Amino acid sequence: MIDTLPLLFLDVDGPLIPFGASRQELPHGYPTYSSGRRQPRGAGTHPLISRIDPAHGPRLTALPCTLVWATTWMSDANDCIAPWLGLPELPVVNWPEPSDEDETGRVHWKTRILLDWAAGRPFAWVDDEITDADRTWVAAHRPGRTLLHHVDARKGLMDADFAALDQWLRTCVPAGDNR
Prior knowledge:
Blueprint: E1 7-10, H1 56-62, E2 66-69, H2 76-85, H3 111-118, E3 123-127, H4 132-141, E4 146-150, H5 159-170
Parallel strand pairs: 1-2, 1-3, 3-4
Organism: Streptomyces paromomycinus
Pfam families: HAD_SAK_2
Protein name: Secreted protein
């Protein structure tokens, strides 16, 4: 069966692992969590994994979409983060080798690759590095439905982000699909 649900491209650093808040914003530092799940060898060695709220796992799986890792963690996201969140192994966008080009003020290096990967399918992209340049480029090069959802890296995914994603994704679910 062909999956007709929209894609949700998910970045890790920023949306799932918050970072960059000042001491004034978080005088006691970021909260840490325990997932209560058995971790594969090496997963607990990442110093920031405990910043990921394991409650995000059920919230992500409740969204009417096909989740795809769109992160520089690549397959490590399936090894470390998916078990932490209780997610199954997810598809992974494989990135090309980095370029020495300066991307300042231009389209993010992930943008073109995600459009190609989606192959015309509706998608939402959740990342802390999305800019107006990305939105403008996507609007000019993509006739299909897209949502480029910027997340504040200092806070990570919040209730309002999940609500916005759920609302948008539900507008893309084919009629008669009750997911």
